[in-house]
Amino acid sequence: MKSFMVRRLARALPARAHIAWVVVAIASVGLFATACDVHGISSGANGALSTITVSPNPQSLLVNGTQQFTAVGADASGNAVAITPVWSIVTGGGTITTSGMFTAGTLPGTYTNTIKATSGGISGTATLTVTIGPLATITVTPNPATLVVGATQQFTAVGKDASGNVVAITPTWAVVASGGTVSAAGLFTAGNTVGTFANTVTATSGAITGTATVIVTGGPAATIVVTPNPVALNPAATQTFTAVAKDASGNVVAITPVWSVVNGGGAIDAATGLFTAGATPGSYANTVKATSGAISGTATVTVNAPASGLATIVVTPNPANLFVNAAQQFTAVGKDANGNNVAITPVWSVVNGGGTINATGLFTAGAATGTFANTVRATSGAIVGSATVIVSAVAPVLTTITVTPNPANVTANNTQQFTAVGRDANGNVMAITPVWTATNGGGTINAVTGVFTAGLVAGTFTNTVRATSGVVFGTATVVVTALVPQPVVNLGSAAPNGIMAGTAFTCVALGVINADISISPGSTVTGFPPCVITGVQHLADAVAAQAQIDLTAAYNVLAGLPCSPSNAIVANLGGTTKPAGVYCTASGIGVTGTLTLDGGGDPNSVFVFQAGTSLTTAGSIVLINGASAKNVYWQVGSSATIGTGSQWQGNILALTSITLVDNANLIGRALARNGAVTLGTNNVITLP
Question: Model pTM?
Fold first, then answer.
């Protein structure tokens, strides 16, 4: 266009005006070009930065995933403008480098306009969605679970990614180490065999598996067997009866029977079972009765008719094996025709050689060896009893040791006195001083006295008690029955609740409460959904009011338990291991790190922690050797805070309030009397 205008001007001017025309033409062209730039024909340079576009937008990432973001600047006409943006995060979701490389955090969610690129006063943003990662772990609860034979337990499985976020799963349930059966929905039914079945319940999703241990204990007593049965006794004779209770599956159940006589025949000590026959002869069917609750067992007693006069004399031992010059004490027992004892003062004599005997029945072997048949004689009136003596030139050798009682039934943690009798090859008793040992578990034994102390693990320990003299030993089997202690505290109607509060309950996000909740006198519940309650909500109703009454009673019982000065809490409990017991402080309890609770092999071991003021955690609880979350109690004088990521176990009974910070999980109960219970993000509460 500029060229066209110049040619027209040249034709319109005379030759002598060419110089002036050139000047005008050049100026005109400049002005025309300027006018064209103003009207957007072409400038040759872009305008000021007007917008910044961040991409990709929106973007979805797994937790901990990465994404390179870019930012493009433009002027008002959309022309690109070179920028060096400053990157930042506005609403969370992860972190970003100065070059725009973003790393997603561990908390799922949609973070609107969180990625920001800024240059001068101009910014651009992008929205990010963080999604849960792949399944990394499965936690099965309760773990361990203690059931009586035939009882059922609903197990639950919670899947999580590597960052601890809950991942929805539909697990496949199985039993791998016996103990019972489990349904496709995780409902476990205990079998008939008593014992501890480690990691037997499994929940599997893909290649990931979680496990739980089951402890099966004996069920309630179904039968009682009284022994001996039948028994024949002379008038005024005594007999100690024993009673063994078993559940429906044949497992021994510890009982303390009440003894009675229901059909005559004599009298019995109600506590010990020692029966004394009466004076009236006869057969008394099922007269001795042992009762425990609604279950009874009986035994029949026959009382013999009295006989008149001495009928027999029995001399013991018979035969007696002695080496030359050895001594042996003989005894003589007189009986009537019915076998009743008759008091006698026998006259002792030796009639066929072998040695001599004094007036009290002490026999001394002579120097001659051999068998002297019926040589020792005890005489009373016309009745005679005799015994044979075998005299040997070689001293007797210990051949056997018999340990009694065998088997012995002992309740866990109780004692039993064992005795050992040594005999030679001929059955003669020999004096021994045995060394006692427990070789197959079940408890411990005093090496000198033979007093056995049962352990806490129930079971049959075959030939575990051993009495040794030289190279000869004898054994006895011990059957240990479990203790069934009363619970340290009865939660009553508070027990079904995973959460109780006096005023309100709040959950921020992704919380799961696998239990009921109760609030009284308040009724405010916030955050459901998105949080989940699997049980029933009792809000300011009669059920919640009664639960608060029972909670207060349980709280007062725990607070009143005696605490030994040796169990005073004087430092942070993190990094320590505690046996069962009551631990206390007038101030607050702190747990930073791992607190290990050791049940010592007793599945009924109880742990009570009394805090005068607060409970504050930045750690976790680990249970070993039979310790169970259901038997752990935290009595807190004000408020409890379970810190970020804490994996806590036990029943928290707080006077005021309870808070679970993000990613803190609780196998137990959060029971607040007067204040509120608050959950952060990604908390799971499961009843123990």
Answer: 0.37
